[in-house]
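Input chain follows. Return structure tokens only.
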Amino acid sequence: MKTIKKITQHTDNIASFIVGAVFIIIIGILFYSIIVGKQEKKESVSTTNQETQLPTKHIVQANESLWTIAEKYYTSGYNWVDLASANKLSNPDYITVGQTVVIPDVKPIIIESGQISAAGISAPKDSQIIVQQGDTLWDIAVYEYGSGYQWTEIARLNTISNPDLIYPGVVLRLQ
């Protein structure tokens, strides 16, 4: 009788071990499937963004600018100008989270290496300027340098940390 009990008890231990091992393997496979499925879904979302039919609409998310939105849809931030124009934005530096932005069907602006150079930028017309109501660094750069992209130079010269905050009456150095 004792021998049968020992054999049965030993068999029960082995069966419990096998059932436990199978259970752990099944749980591992499920977790792996879930993780791989989430990664494939993320890849699918990024692929979908690249294949979006234009024109379309985009809802602004936190930390987005027209530049970053243009990069998503055109793979070129330079198309931010098209976004500003299509949405008739009076201040393209100011968009808000939740705002709907129309994404027009335009050709991506691709700048080849060497197309933008300092040689094409003229010196400013004035050595300094007084900011007027409604001015933006972009507008000032277009008027003074002939290129809106020089707004970064104006911001650097005047140690402006937030280019959206310039106030009427402030004197800006241009050289």
